[in-house]
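Thread: Newbie trying to understand structure tokens

Hi all, I'm a second-year student working on a class project, and my supervisor (Dr. K.) asked me to get a predicted structure for one chain before our next meeting. I've only ever worked with sequences, so writing a 3D structure as a token string is new to me. If someone could post the tokens and maybe explain what I'm looking at, I'd be very grateful. Here's the chain:
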Amino acid sequence: MKIFIVAIGGVIILQEFGYDVTGLIAGLGVGGLALSLAAQDTVANLFGFASIIGDSPFSLGDYIRTPDVEGTVEHVGVRSTRVRQSDETLITIPNNVLANSAISNFSRMPRRRIDFTVGVTYRTTAAQMRVLLDRLRTLLKAWPSADPSTVQVYFSKFNDRLARHPRPLLCAQAHMGRDDD
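---
Reply by user tm_fold:
Sure, no problem. This is what the structure looks like when written as tokens:
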């Protein structure tokens, strides 16, 4: 604000001494416009940072997914946030981009659904398939981080090559394969 008052005072003094200040005023206007355009991203990132801090969609160490990146949050700064992907790549995302993105935070899930398919050949007998289903069901229900009431094991489809078997649904409280202890 002081700079603005000094600039106005300087323009008035120059005008009192008989100088034509219209060019100077126009130049200051163009300079102000250029400065505001140059600072636009910085200001947007500051507002993005404030939004991230205020909304708290994630914390350091959380595993997140956005339309552009998936990984573990390593740093949240004023200008950008750094996320480490599973291939160890460190991605830097401007905060204004992140604040305007849909963010899935897997670290805040109370339970996790895990689907997988096991193939068996057509030579597998019905008795062997029943035994396989029972063993998988027993194994998954005994899994330390699983909720036994949510385990489902069933045949999902048959095709020419394999009878694609069990799609166990394991609702685990484990955090992306890591211990939460």
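A couple of things are worth pointing out once you decode it. The chain has five helices and ten strands. Residues 22-38 form the longest helix (17 residues). Feel free to ask follow-ups in this thread.
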